[in-house]
Amino acid sequence: MLSMEVILHAGNARDFVFKAIEQAANGDFTEADSLMERANEEIHQAHRVQTSTLQKEAEGIEIPYSPLFGHAQDTLMTVKTEFNLIREFIKLYKKSSER
């Protein structure tokens, strides 16, 4: 099911970004960057699944309403926001460690 695929990848991304900020807080910026890369890959995979569904509707294929798909989109959007915020926090940790 496509909705679950989006939720799965978004959940994986969320796990990676929160592990990344933990690593940054501990001063392991190499690992933090690696985890953020993995999170970004998961976000892209989730986005591809979402986009393929939306493209079908744009092509005129009727997609029935699905609360689960709405939840999947909400989860992905939230994780993308968390990713962007945590990326900035990691930059702050890096600057702070240089002092």
Overall pLDDT metric: 96
The CATH homologous superfamily is termed: Phosphotransferase system, lactose/cellobiose-type IIA subunit
Q: If you compute it from the alpha carbons, what radius of gyration comes out, rounded to the nearest whole angstrom? A: 16 Å
CATH class descriptor name = Mainly Alpha
CATH architecture: Up-down Bundle
Shape: elongated
What does this structure look like?
The protein has helices at 2-25, 29-58, 67-97. 86% of the residues lie in helices and 0% in strands. The longest helix is centred in the C-terminal third of the chain and has 31 residues, at 67-97. With 99 residues, it is mainly α. The protein has one domain (2-97): Methane Monooxygenase Hydroxylase, Chain G, domain 1 (Up-down Bundle), CATH 1.20.58. The model has no long low-confidence stretch (mean pLDDT 96). The chain contains three helices and no strands.
Name the features.
mainly alpha; 86% helix; phosphotransferase system; sugar transport; transport; Cellobiose-specific PTS system IIA component
